[in-house]
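Give me the 3D structure for alpha-L-rhamnosidase.
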Amino acid sequence: MRKVFLLPLVLLMSTTVGFAQSAVTAVWVENRENPLGVVSAQPRFSWRLQSDKRNTVQTAYEINLKEGSATAWSTGKVNSNQSVHVVYNGKPLESGKKYTWQVRAWDNSGKPSAWSKPAFFTMGLLNEADWKASWITPGFTEDENRPSPLFRKEFETKRKLRSAIAYVTSHGMYEAFINGKRIGDAYLTPGWTSYHNRLQYQVYDLTNQLASGRNTIGVQLGSGWYRGNIGFSGQYNVYGKDIALLFQLEIEYSDGTKELVISDGSWKTSTGEIQYAEIYHGETIDHRKEKAGWLNPGYNDSEWSSAQVAGFPKNTLISTINEPVRKQETFKPVKIFTTPAGEKVIDFGQNLVGWVVMRFNGKAGDSIFITHAEVLDKQGNFYIDNLRSAKCRNIFVLRGGQQEVFEPHFTWQGFRYARIEGIKGELLPENFEAVALYSDMEPTGTFTSSNPLINQLQHNIQWGQRGNFLDVPTDCPQRDERLGWTGDAQAFSRTASFNMNVNSFFAKWLRDVEADQVEGKVPFVVPNVLGKNEVNSAGWADVATIAPWNMYLAYGDKRLLETQYNSMKEFVESMRKIAKNDLWNTGFHFGDWLFYRPGDDNDGRAAVTDKYLIAQCFYAHSTELLVNAAKVLGKTEDAASYSDLLKRIRTAFVNEYLTPSGRLVSSTQTAYVLALQFDMFPEQLREQAAKRLADNIESYDYHLTTGFLGTPYLCHVLTRYGYSDIAYRLLLQDSYPSWLYPVKMGATTIWERWDGIRPDSTFQTPGMNSFNHYAYGAIGDWMYRSMVGLDTEEDGPGYRHIRVKPHIGEGFTHASASLKTYYGTVSGGWKKENDELQMTVEIPANTTAKIYIPAANAESVTESGKALSAIAGIKINGGEKGYVVIETGSGKYNFIVKK
Ligand code: BGC
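Predicted structure for alpha-L-rhamnosidase (899 residues):
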């Protein structure tokens, strides 16, 4: 079970026992620890050098890489400070092979670290021809409920094993077993991609799970995204109607001989206990229908039908590069009660995404229905109208006899409450447990402050991310939607990169963005299940440029940028083609989705922003990010020509949407926020525009009125133009519309709408009212990056060159945050005490930092009790409006500023 750690400031300030000598304490290949199934011909190696000596940098490294006992790559000592994303440059890596490697690094004391602990990776299947297995489908006619098909195969191992590696994928979802034991701990496999173009397979090391002698492989499938109901228009079979399995086990004996066990016509198929499984609607499991013993050798499958071999393509198969969905936190019931309507309901205390595990002892044939909901209504009744057509109901049918355990396999639910039907008498807490499932990304960020409501907001942001990062970044996890909405994903991508390491998560999904682009145009949702015309809504489509750039900043991942470059460029080109005289003012756009509009709007207070004004802003922004990417990648011609285009886009904006005195045609917060954020105003008109924004906020009595597109940038723009005080007022506002209003209403996740539950406890329209939608959680980025002030400089992305610049405001006595980067932990925090300001900063080895200390002059600042000027390694770099700016290297710093 994983816990969310909120680091108190004291902890940040204490020094930990550490590494007098530099040590390599973590290593990655392609951003993962010991990955199986790497397919890059030139994988990248990263390591973390740790030291508690200040100003430690790496001066050289050495990598040794072996296949068995043969060296495949030995770099010798390389004089370089690079420790992240070092590109492989050894002998060609071979399909299916396992490689072990170690690294050591020299620091500026001239001494090498010890060699890192041996790490490994395996290569995936590099060529289509490496797949010897055949696609197989059930050998019987499925009934209309489409019960989960079972596939089984017995085989024998003949000698002592050296290794056994399985490669598995399916049309639909699969769960595989070897001799009765589940293979791996990944769920909802093979995950979701643009299946027509890309289908992931997973790799499992079964070396320690095979028995000598007889073995049985068992696999069950569910319809999943492939052919289940997906999309809100009731679509089924989006990718095809056939459910199918592809399974290849490569066995190597210790005498060097090899054997393959592959899916083919010799496999047997039947159905079992899973009678029905749909992502939106839930799963029906009837224990009486279990084929007892089918997972073990010796089971009599003579009544089963032989699998059918199918000719489905294999040229779309890709290895999995992101972390799989795994089981995470578990929750016990916090309350069991009967609602006024007489229903028995369990409260798990947290709106989460996953499912309920039930342990129960009852009579054969008894059915227990578990329905899921996020909220109770005003009267305290179970509320499911906002799930729309999704049934979100699991049905468990008992075998009878001893205690039975039930949990679904091919569905999930977004819920805090579960309604239990079919149990007479009292519900016992020990019979029910909720388990959260999400992509197993490393938690990297913590944020905490002196304000408990803001800490709850951070909690809600993180749970919004957990609930909606299930292999694909989804809008929501509960109703008949759960789609990869591109606008939501771009809005939240930077915040996401603080809370967890989302490098590989986005690297994978962005490949699907490109795969589903239609002549460069980016779909509303990816994978696209809505149709080829549902594309290029401003602020949604821009995920194609925004997310790659954010990943480049957060992780320094230049290859991701390179891989996405074409997608970025094609998207910008698609807008250029649509635009007339550099104005993008046609087509459908969602606009500033879910902006503030009062019910009775006689006074014209609804914050409607012209959709084409928004489109022009994002057109400029995406073009600018393309220019940035072109510069990083050395594409000078593109950089120059798109810089020209960018100028023209801005001029067109000025001509169309701005009055000579600097007023925008839409006088909304979002209009000013976007135009300021993306530098659409001529320089001389920016300050007055920022003032208009500030005045507008004041006129709403310090409430925001922004929707999905304005919200992520609102506080950043205020801070940039010197209105941090207003940003703080917005953050601390707790009446509708505001970030804290839902918190005060008891939210444990971020809501889709500012008023999902209205002040009078009634609900917003059930047609669009999710209580787990991360988009508005984008404020997290400002909390980390401006409030505490942890940021990366663009010239040293991935926090190689760090900027710590807190903006301290009213209403808090302290705030602190930490971020685990590839280099190590970056942290910062401030605390106001009496007449002093304490500021702590931690900078990892092999990075440098520019630290902005809020002080009038260097003389008023001490570090660990000494004058700043007396500290070796700290370079005082003058000042900047209210800050003393210093440059320094790694280490932990405790600054005190006297007023
Ligand atoms: C989704 C949003 C999405 C929007 C498009 C909704 O149904 O839940 O989050 O971005 O449609 O405006």
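The longest strand covers residues 344-360. Let me know if you want a second pass.
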